[in-house]
Each structure stands twice: as structure tokens, then as C-alpha cells.
Amino acid sequence: MSRKLVYFMIISLILLILQINIFSFLPFRGNSPDLLLLLVICAGFLEDKKYSGVYFGFALGILQDMLLGGMFGIYTITKTLIGGMADLVADNIYKKSLVFPPVMAFVASFIQEYLVIFFSMSMFSVIFRSHSPVDIFTFSIYNTLLMFFLYLIVYYFILGGGQKYEW
Amino acid sequence: MYDYNNREFIALFIILILIVSLAVINFAGIEIGFLTWLERSLYNILSPVLKIFTGFYNSVVNFGEYWQEKEQLIEERNELKKEVAELEREKQQMENIKRENKRLRELLAFKDFVDYKTEGAKVIGHGPSTLQNKIIINKGRNEGIEEKMPVISYNGILVGRVESAGNSSARIQMINDPDFVVAGIVQREESRAAGIVKGTNDDVSIMEKIGWDEDIVEEDLILTSGLSDSYPRGIPIGRVIKVEEDNYGVSQKAEISLFIDSRTIEEVLVITDF
User: How high is the ipTM of this complex?
Assistant: First the structure.
């Protein structure tokens, strides 16, 4: 098991705790961020293994669905798809850039929210009175800002700016 | 030619199969014991960590507030002392009324109202999604909390119900969760219009299936009807802000402004018996 993978697993647990605890008490216009989504993108971009975004998306999606209970599987599906997207674009980006990951976070947040709303409404007939495009935009902006710091921390401080580690 | 022995291909295929299986299990509403066990175990592992984080967060917030509000607190304490004295007097009066009420009930052979048995709990986290409204509390099966128990706030307003209970924590489905449903009734004596209140992931819920000729107007107070046996009757839900026709005039639906704010709630009471 690579050191990078172990780091990603530890970061996953820390972000999960932060997301359901500290950040849930710090909403921005009623929206809390989705740190697990941001980590799926980071994994897709930075983990060397092929399809790492898909694997992380699947694992973190299941974790999120398990913590939420009802409508099981929706975040597993959306996060796996977004992980796949991150894998697809990973080869074409300059990993040292701090611009592209936040842009990806913004787009992915939009896609995830619309997919979750679509699946929830079509499969479970639920009503979403809130979550206008403005709400989703706010949620995406919050994620975008946090992605900047998360990518900076993960890539430069934890992974040492792209140096290769082997155990 | 694609290499079908490729490990990555097999892993992706397994993921696809698992996703489809999860979707089918969920859509069909099949309950699998292993998944429930896994979910509870996850909460059992996470709850001690969440309690530590919440304690840390609260102490940081409290420390800042303490210096800001010291003088204000002294003033408030003096006010509260006066209020306590007044409440003591009112309590005495209430005791007299209660005794009289009991005597009259016995006289008329009415069934007694039973007080709820409750368990107080603190909110230690929220569900990891902005599209579903769930909170995590610091009490669970060890304190007698079970699935489907109703949850209210300290001032008696409906908060939701216990969705899943671990040993020392539980997940509450909030009243504004899009998957939440409760039977509601108008409080006015001359109305008693009933309907189904559904969460919409907003501060406003929708009350549906109200009879077309039922008397429901703006500003009406909506309470739990107690028809389903899942909730005691008479718990406040919210206030009507809009009424309109539904199903081409066959029924009515109303928008209910909820009394609770899911993001700021810090403490709840779980009704363990009613």
C-alpha cells in the first residue's frame, strides 16, 4: 500500500468528522460544505493509481450514504461519477496549479447537487422546496473556496508537492 | 482487444454491480440486517470522536462568549431571580388548578392525559448533506432511545423522529427533511382540518391531502394529529402561511412555516414513552 493512499485514508476520516461536526455548525447562507466531495476530486487528481477517483468516490459515497440512512445509494452513485470525471481530466492538468482544482470543485458541486435532486425526485418522489440555483451556487462557492485550501494542504504540505514516496 | 483479466476492469465491474444492487435494494425498500449493523457500528465508532469535537467547539465558542457577555449575564441573572420567584408563585397556583382538574376529570370519568417520558440530548453533528436534514445526538440505546421515537425541542415543538439508534448516539430525521411525513391537524376548535405534512428541505413544509371543503386559513396553528400512533397528539409543528387548491380542486394544500430551525438547534428531547 502506498504512503499516499494511507494519507488519503487518514484525511478522509478527519474530513468526515469535520464535515458532520465543526463545519455543520458553520453554514454559509444555510449551506454546509461537502468536504468528502473535495477529497474525491483531490484523489482523482493526485493519486497515481488508475481510476483512483472512482474508487475513492465509491468508498466515500458509501460512507456518506451510510451516515445519512434513507435514500441509500444516491451519494455513492454521484460521488463515483464525479471521481470518474476527476480521473478523466487528471492527465490533462498541471497538478501544481491551484486554479484548476477549485474550478473542478465548483463544477462538481453543481453536478452533484443536481444529480442528487434528480435521483431523489424521480426515484423517491420527494419535494425540494429549497435548493434554488442560488442555493446550489452558494454551496458550490463554499466548496470552491475550501478546495483551494484543501488542495494546497494535501498537495504541498502532506504529499510534499508531488514527490514520490514508496513504503 | 480488451484484456478481460485486467484487475482494474474487474474492480470497476464490481463497483458497477454494487451500485446497481444498492439502488435496487433502496428503491425496493428491502432492509438488510448487515447494512443496518454496519450503519450502527459506524455511529458507535464515530460518536466518541464527535463528542470530543463538539466539546472542543463548544468550549472555544463559550470562552469567547464568556468575556463578551459577562456583564450582560450578571444583569440577566438578577432578572432571572425575579422571574423564578414569580414562577414559583404561578407554580403554586398551577398545582391548585391541577388538583381541581384531576377531581373534575374523575367526576366526569375522563381519561387522564399522560405526560411524555423524555430523554434530553445534545446535538453533536449534522448529516453530511445539505439536501437531507439529519442531526446526530449524544444519546442512544444505552439511554433507552429506539428507532421511530418522536423528538421535540425544549419548548415542546416537533423536531423529528429517531431514524437510527446506535449505543451512545442516534440519528434524527428532522421535520424539514424531504423524506419526512407526519399527520397534522388545525388547532382551531371549529376547524380540525387534517392533512399530511411533508418536509421540503426548507423552513416551509407542505401540508397535503386536506379535504376540499375543510376550514383552513392563513395563521392557523398546525399540531400533530396523533392519528398514526407514532407521535403524541398536540405537538406544535408550524403556522399556515398559504392555502391553495390541489389536484384540480379535489383537495387543498397549505404551506406551513415551521417553528424550528434545523441549523441552530442545539438540544432536543426524545419522547421515550407516551
Answer: 0.77
